[in-house]
Write a structure and sequence with these properties.
Layout (H helix, E strand, L loop, with lengths): L1 H27 L10 E7 L2 E4 L12 E5 L12 E10 L4 E8 L8 E4 L1 H18 L11 H8 L11 E15 L3 E16 L6 E12 L9 H6 L3 E7 L5 E8 L10 E10 L2 E10 L8 E16 L4 E14 L2 E15 L3 E12 L9 E16 L2 E10 L16 H4 L2 E10 L3 E9 L10 E9 L8 E11 L2 E15 L2 E13 L7 E13 L3 E12 L3 E14 H6 L1
Antiparallel strand pairs: 1-2, 1-6, 2-5, 3-4, 3-6, 4-5, 7-8, 7-28, 8-9, 9-10, 10-11, 11-12, 12-13, 13-14, 14-15, 15-16, 16-17, 17-18, 18-19, 19-20, 20-21, 21-22, 22-23, 23-24, 24-25, 25-26, 26-27, 27-28
């Protein structure tokens, strides 16, 4: 009897390694639920940031996410932290959060990442849930070489971001109507949002969005407000591998190390040498929110960036470069640019960028001269998560050429104040925040300095209705004109698959550079998910101005896709 029991114990020990191997193999097939490489910023309005991801991607209320200008595939080196947000409301496929801190302006196309603390908490909760459903896996404290060899050769599932392609595509149909004159133009187009990572198991990725329309009748030739906003899109094919020193990008993009150059249709190409990155870039300046906007301008140049420090303490990023620009390929500018960022954890950030022009004899009364053409400097101090202070200095030698019709949308706030100004942002109970900014213009042609100011209030939820709102009022006096604007934005996630947003705005401006001095507008849109794969969007723009006066309507029908989810369904 004893011999039989001994034999049974020996037989059990023989099959134990096989059982362990099976357990490891079964566990390897499970990816961490809901965690993705990053969440793309869809829309930003003062203190609110809207993400193209929700509870289905692992987001939950109360989580804090870092905002980065670039999305690296592994680790956080090679990208710049520009802010932090806290999630306030979550739907299945979208989420909204408030800006806790920001070192630079957060724009659509930036990416939100979980902080290390948030990731660890999610993993612990996931492990806790798994432990309640599955038996524990035993693990030896001392390894056995044969068993270790077996474990190392077990096939491992790919990372969640490998060959992940998700987004949506829709086809637009709309009309442009002139009050009292009927339909002047019918419009057709398409909209695309795409986030494709680790294409072909490489470190190439595509992310961004595009929306464009074609008019079937040319009775109305001017661009509408919606057309201008659509031109601020961001769609980039880029390469950034932790295993390679080369980096590259093409499409509509920011140069990651020199965001002060604004959006361009073009490319960048660089190589890391230690902590330095050397590169070249080229393209055009098609974004109407750029301070030197001209759709016919070509630009090219070279840069060098170096970084020091750590995110947990002090960190420095500095970029220097030279560039030339042409308009219709005729000489325009020869300039150098310098961009610097200094961070101390979440408490302090310092940012500056300068551009200096080399003026030749024909541009400068017969003599060559180097002169400052653009300068922006800001210091932000956040002693506590509920309050932050900022001090800014803004200077232009030349008159900015952005499209002034966008002033009332809030997209041009960073250009309205010239001179020194300062402000604060205070988070109050019940998800209420107030903010203000004030300063005095310092243009040389002013007989006396004039005050500029902006004030606003953000309501995270109005009377428990789920509606978020933001109101702001601004008075400005700048080189391109003087005036006021005010805007009100409101939105709500009605259900898991239904969301609406509407913006009211008006601007009054006196300027010698445009006849469109007074305008009022309404922008509204509704997104409705039809099941798990399809969606419909409705939109309206009503614009009343001295030069333009129109109503624009559109409807979009489209398809949502995610190859990873389809594979798992």
């Amino acid at each position: 009897m004893v011999m039989q029991r001994t034999s049974a114990i020996r037989e059990s020990l023989r099959v134990l390694p096989a059982l362990l191997v099976w357990a490891l193999f079964a566990g390897a097939g499970r990816a961490e639920p809901g965690l993705t490489a990053g969440y793309r910023v869809k829309f930003v309005h003062e203190s609110s940031v809207y993400l193209e991801a929700g509870s289905g991607s692992g987001l939950a209320e109360g989580q804090r996410l870092m905002i980065r200008r670039e999305m690296p595939e592994r680790g956080l080196e090679g990208s710049a932290t520009i802010g932090e947000i806290e999630i306030e409301s979550v739907a299945l496929t979208s989420a909204a959060g408030r800006i806790v801190s920001s070192r630079s302006e957060i724009v659509p196309g930036d990416t939100a990442y979980h902080t290390q603390e948030s990731l660890e908490k999610i993993r612990q909760e996931s492990v806790s849930r798994e432990a309640q459903q599955y038996p524990q896996i035993a693990q030896f404290t001392e390894g056995s070489p044969p068993e270790q060899e077996i474990r190392e050769n077990i096939p491992k599932p790919p990372l969640p971001e490998v060959n992940r392609i998700r987004g949506r595509i829709g086809f637009d149909s709309g009309i442009l109507q002139i009050p009292g004159e009927g339909v002047r133009s019918s419009q057709f187009g398409f909209a695309l949002r795409l986030d494709a990572t680790r294409l072909g198991s490489t470190y190439w990725k595509i992310n961004g969005y595009y929306r464009g329309r074609v008019q079937s009748r040319k009775d109305y030739r001017d661009q509408t407000l919606s057309d201008l906003i659509n031109r601020t899109y961001y769609l980039t094919l880029s390469y950034d591998s932790p295993k390679s020193n080369w980096v590259a990008g093409a499409g509509r993009l920011f140069v990651p190390w020199a965001s002060s150059l604004n959006t361009m249709d073009g490319f960048y190409f660089g190589r890391r040498v230690g902590r330095q990155t050397l590169g070249v870039f080229g393209g055009t300046n098609p974004d109407p929110t750029s301070w030197n906007y001209d759709p016919d301008r070509q630009i090219g140049g070279a840069f060098v960036n170096f970084e020091r420090g750590r995110f947990e303490s002090f960190r420095l990023s500095s970029t220097s470069g030279i560039a030339v620009s042409r308009i219709h390929w005729d000489p325009d500018r020869q300039f150098g640019f310098f961009e610097n960022n200094i961070f101390y954890r979440q408490y302090l950030s310092v940012y500056s960028n300068q551009e200096v022009d080399l003026l030749n004899a024909s541009q400068n009364e017969g003599k060559r001269e180097v002169t400052l053409s653009r300068s922006y400097f800001t210091v932000r101090f956040q002693p506590h998560k509920v309050i932050s202070f900022d001090l800014n200095e803004n200077y232009f030698r030349n008159i900015p050429t952005f499209d002034t019709r966008l002033i009332g949308t809030g997209l041009l706030d960073k250009y309205l104040f010239q001179g020194v100004n300062g402000g604060f942002r205070l988070a109050l109970p019940r998800r209420v925040a107030v903010y203000a900014n004030a300063g005095r213009s310092s243009r040389t042609e002013d007989r006396r300095p004039s005050w500029n100011y902006l004030a606003g209030i953000t309501l995270g939820e109005i009377l428990r209705t789920g509606i978020r709102a933001d109101y702001r009022y601004s008075r400005f006096d700048s080189s391109f004109g003087r005036g006021t604007y005010q805007s009100l934005t409101a939105g709500r996630d009605v259900a898991e698959g239904l969301r609406f947003e509407i913006q009211f705005g008006q601007q009054d401006m006196t300027s010698g550079f445009t006849a469109q001095n007074r305008a009022r507008f309404i922008n509204g849109n509704v997104d409705w998910y039809l099941g798990t794969r399809y969606f419909m969007a409705l939109g309206l723009t009503a614009y009343r101005g001295q030069v333009q006066d129109y109503n624009q309507y559109f409807v979009t029908l489209g398809y949502r896709f995610d190859n990873r989810k389809r594979r798992n369904e």
